[in-house]
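Design job #97: recover the sequence.
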């Protein structure tokens, strides 16, 4: 519990420092639009979604908030997130063949692995729809050799998440 509070504290501190000294969080979409080509940001998003979802997708929803055809961009983000989840699954499948890394992951994510074993698709659906580490869950599903057809069908909920969260993210900020 103390670890979780420390992590939350670090995240809050980082956002405060970012917001106070570097750039207003609400200005991030404009900064990205003005300084980076959309293709570069989309490729970066796919990379982060493939490697554990390092950056919350909500920041990318903010990025597209200033663009024309907003929901088309939200759809592209959803599709890229889905593809990233499938990449993560393949990464997990590869990791499963490397005992040293697999054992480390099994220890590190024992709780998530247990949930996937116990609840299967329900846990994957929850990760796809809610702010849980979807790419991590997909990687672990690959480690467990969860059926790829089921994952690819359940993973479509990830696209729906973007359309459901976009109005919420824009309404909050």
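Job complete. Output follows.
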């Amino acid at each position: 519990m103390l670890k979780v509070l420390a992590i939350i504290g670090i995240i809050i501190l980082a956002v405060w420092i970012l917001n106070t000294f570097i750039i207003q969080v609400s200005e991030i979409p404009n900064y990205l639009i003005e300084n980076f080509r959309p293709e570069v940001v989309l490729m970066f998003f796919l990379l982060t979604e493939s490697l554990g979802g390092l950056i919350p997708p909500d920041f990318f929803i903010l990025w597209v908030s200033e663009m024309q055809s907003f929901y088309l961009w939200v759809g592209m983000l959803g599709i890229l997130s889905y593809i990233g989840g499938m990449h993560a699954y393949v990464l997990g499948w590869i990791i499963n063949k490397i005992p040293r890394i697999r054992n480390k992951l099994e220890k590190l994510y024992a709780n998530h692995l247990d949930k996937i074993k116990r609840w299967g698709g329900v846990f994957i659906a929850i990760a796809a729809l809610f702010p849980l580490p979807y790419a991590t869950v997909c990687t672990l599903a690959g480690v467990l050799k969860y059926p790829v057809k089921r994952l690819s069908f359940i993973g479509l909920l990830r696209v729906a998440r973007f359309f459901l969260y976009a109005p919420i993210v824009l309404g909050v900020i």
